[in-house]
Recover the amino acids of this structure.
């Protein structure tokens, strides 16, 4: 049995995620789409917190909501007049997009509902089994033993360096 | 009432479907990137949910999401650099107008 606060929080976050992701792809003003994306990302961070991954929630807020969103807003302001709405979509385009989305929902929905372990444990049980602290995450992240993540950690640092250099090289004013 | 895995997968499913819709219908390059972020985010969410409900003692899903967030940041930064460069050379970022590779 879950606490009533957890259930309320779940429904609020689920509605926020569903509504704002739908609005982010249907609004005609691009700056609004970026704002709705921010709400979706924050809702995702709340889900991470609720599932007991506090570190991941903090990373989600810092990197996605803090970093990527700012990049989006800057690039929108650099490339177009923010008040201009996009042109109205042609009907066949809407139809094709809607069809693809409905197909995705149907296919994935069937796959999810047929999944054998779908009615496993409840949230309280799962969180109580796997509680983790920051020290544990740090040990796993920098260990080269089994279940250690030193290699991907180093690889992603090289990737980010390459990304910085590539970003400068591409966006540089010639 | 219990909060089960299925209940957490549903918002993620809706987010992914919205991303697919936006990716197909939008013409603005930045709007397409926003839809792409929605899809990536829903997949990240799924990794964490499966990790929590199926293997609560382990951390693989969480670390996968951690690295996926880092890679998504790198990808977005490069994509936006390309968009700004395209804008600088042809003053438009509409996919129907971008038809030549060489600029």
């Amino acid at each position: 049995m879950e606490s009533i606060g957890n259930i309320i929080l779940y429904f609020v976050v689920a509605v926020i995620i569903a509504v704002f992701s739908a609005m982010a792809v249907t609004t005609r003003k691009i700056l609004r789409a970026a704002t709705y994306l921010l709400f979706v990302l924050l809702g995702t961070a709340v889900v991470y917190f609720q599932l007991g991954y506090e570190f991941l929630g903090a990373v989600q807020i810092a990197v996605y909501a803090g970093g990527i969103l700012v990049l989006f807003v800057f690039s929108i302001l650099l490339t177009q007049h923010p008040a201009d709405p996009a042109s109205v979509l042609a009907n066949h385009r809407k139809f094709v997009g809607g069809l693809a989305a409905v197909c995705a929902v149907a296919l994935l929905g069937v796959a999810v509902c047929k999944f054998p372990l779908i009615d496993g444990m409840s949230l309280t049980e799962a969180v109580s089994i796997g509680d983790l602290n920051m020290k544990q995450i740090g040990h796993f992240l920098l260990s080269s033993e089994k279940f250690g993540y030193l290699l991907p950690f180093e690889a992603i640092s090289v990737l980010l360096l390459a990304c910085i250099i590539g970003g400068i090289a591409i966006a540089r004013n010639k | 009432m219990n909060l089960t895995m299925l209940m957490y997968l549903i918002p993620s499913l809706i987010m992914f479907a919205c991303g697919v819709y936006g990716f197909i219908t939008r013409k603005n390059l930045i709007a397409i990137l926003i839809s792409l972020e929605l899809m990536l985010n829903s997949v990240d969410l799924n990794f964490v949910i499966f990790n929590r409900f199926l293997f609560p003692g382990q951390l693989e899903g969480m670390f996968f999401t951690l690295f996926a967030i880092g890679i998504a940041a790198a990808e977005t930064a490069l994509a936006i650099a390309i968009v700004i460069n395209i804008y600088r050379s042809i003053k438009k970022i509409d996919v129907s107008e971008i038809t030549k590779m060489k600029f």
About this structure: Chain B has a mean pLDDT of 88.
